[in-house]
Amino acid sequence: MDPTGAAHHAVNARLRERGPAAPVLLPGDVEAFAVTGHEELRELLTDTRIAKDARHFAALQEGRVPEGWPLAVYATVEGMTTADGADHRRLRSLVTKAFTHRRVAQLRPRVEQLVAELLAELREFAEKDGTVDLWEHFAYPLPMNVICELLGVEPQSRDRLHELFRVLLSTDSKPAEIVSAGRETAGVLAGVVAARRADPGDDLTSALIAAREEDGDRLSETELTGTLLTLTVAGHETTMSLITNAVRALCTHRSQLELALSGAVTWESVVEETLRYDGPVGFFPFRYPTEDISVGGTVIPRGTPVLAGYTAAGRDPRTHGPDADRFDVTRPPDQHLSFGHGPHFCLGAPLARMEAAIALEALFGRHPGLELAVPDEELPPRPSFVGNSTLVLPVRLGG
Fold it and tell me: What CDD domains does the database record attribute to this sequence (predicted)?
């Protein structure tokens, strides 16, 4: 797997040619498998023979994973993403109330306000040639502020957390960088917990602390900080990339943009097609077979880490047809797996969908002539085969 994250879709196509499940080599020479077929991935995500707990990760348990491994955070963080069975249900139940449809609907006015504020000052950040980095001044601050307000993370901690997450989530980070960033992240999140414990508020962190203190065996301290890490990362990284990828797709497919601007399709349809066509998550680590399993005729040995190939599945022609590589906002929206499937389906999916639709409608409603300032293929990719997006998004806003 290319740790630089270059050419996601070309890599996906090559892997699909080798079958719906293919052996891959991760950084550190760790052997794994990538599942790239839509139907095979859908089945894998609900297979009871597949675990998320790293106790089933053979190479890790046998000491064959190097220290400072760039993918370690995905395996070792304590929280919903690495829990199975009753533990997973226990952790998920504590967080579910923050992402109910009612709670998300209540967040809509705040999301609309943040979008309006960001758009109002966008031109102030324009360079002399008229370009603005839409990633830095719109796609990133919107979801970061929303999730941090929901969690009760103070503003002074937000940018630093994002910088640390960028190191932790980059698959080409150096071991020493990973170790240092991991320690500092734990310290920052511990500070968030301490602040909310001293001054509880109407936020999810305060609610999680209260639940832990009411029944001490329900949520350990490491589970608490691990849950905060998971929610903060997932709550801004994926939505940030979703907005970025949607803008790129619309700017390079102007006829599709016109359909949305004219009202022929909804902005929600634009979001769903972006999730399928160029979703924010490429290959998500990890799942581990608890016994040898067959996926699309390929045997994956027990204890081997498995990557869920979401962007690959999104363009699987066996499911999405011979035009799977085409961005088409009129496509039926119920086919992709970008938020997962089964017990670990993304809790934040309704919030991400709402944020992206509001952001795109307001952005192009205000700047219908917005265009990329450089060719899409020249935009530097995020250095990761897990996250799928670009590091910057220079645009010209138009008249």
Answer: CYP107-like
